[in-house]
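Mods, move this if it's the wrong board.
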Amino acid sequence: MPSRALGRSDVRVTALGFGAAAVAGLYQDVGEEEAAAAVDAAWAAGVRYFDTAPHYGLGLSERRLGEALRGRPRDGFTLSTKVGRVLVPHDGGGDDLAHGFAVPATHRRRWDFSADGVRRSLEDSLTRLGLDRVDLVLLHDPDDHEEQVFREAYPALEDLRSQGVVRAIGAGMNQTRMLTRFLKDTDVDAVLCAGRYTLLEQGALDALLPAAEAAGKSVVVGGVFNSGLLADPSPGATYDYAAAPADLLRRAVRMREVTESWGVPLRAAALRFPFGHPAVASVLVGARSAAQVRDATGLFHRPLPDAVWEGLRTRNLLSGEVPVPAGSES
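Not the wrong board. Structure tokens:
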């Protein structure tokens, strides 16, 4: 599995990363053994970048990922987590399905982008992980807290990096405008952009990706299947976690027709697409089972004829200005 450094840091990530939201019961329950098997399968496939967050399953993702990685050589993998949501104990019962996770509501999330909140969040994450450090810390979904984030939270991350507590810092969001500001106005090493650089939409190409390339910084891409539509464009498919609009469904179906005419699943093209841009260091894929991990890694290594991209362009499904991976047939 190839790897790249994040920006000018010494933190390296494998091209394919393991997104650990799914093993924390995203939308449906996942057992302990199934979750551990998913991480084991990723490791066996050469994946060495693992991403988690307190938000995922109210800390369950961090606990499960930490347990699965604890016996691995600590210098042999890269781990990222996020700050911005502090978990507060809750004894009112119920579940967390309103936030997308099939887990008991043992805690409540509280937004906190203060400097103290950043430090507390990281300390709590290390406790749940049971590890002595994380490599990359990302400000998580600060959409509604912009000024506080730049005034308090980001400087706190800079301090942690300068002290050697963490090795790289950045932000993770589902939008491009604020991520572009991070790239231009701060000294982040990388940003995580979810859902905005896919076969269906390339909004990140307008400003975010050029800004990253110009600054020598890296972009990690998440949500390459647009929450399901590019994985299986069929009636009932989801886009951005809601029912897919009819026009986007039709477009995805046409894309699938093109890729399958060359014997390539649409999922394989969607997974490989972001690597056409030089600023993209890694693509995160969520998986809840070993079978899903093996499927994703198989798609990543699957040969892709250059004719697939040309076919999409010929049918006006992909702009000629959008970069695509080169040499993907070898």
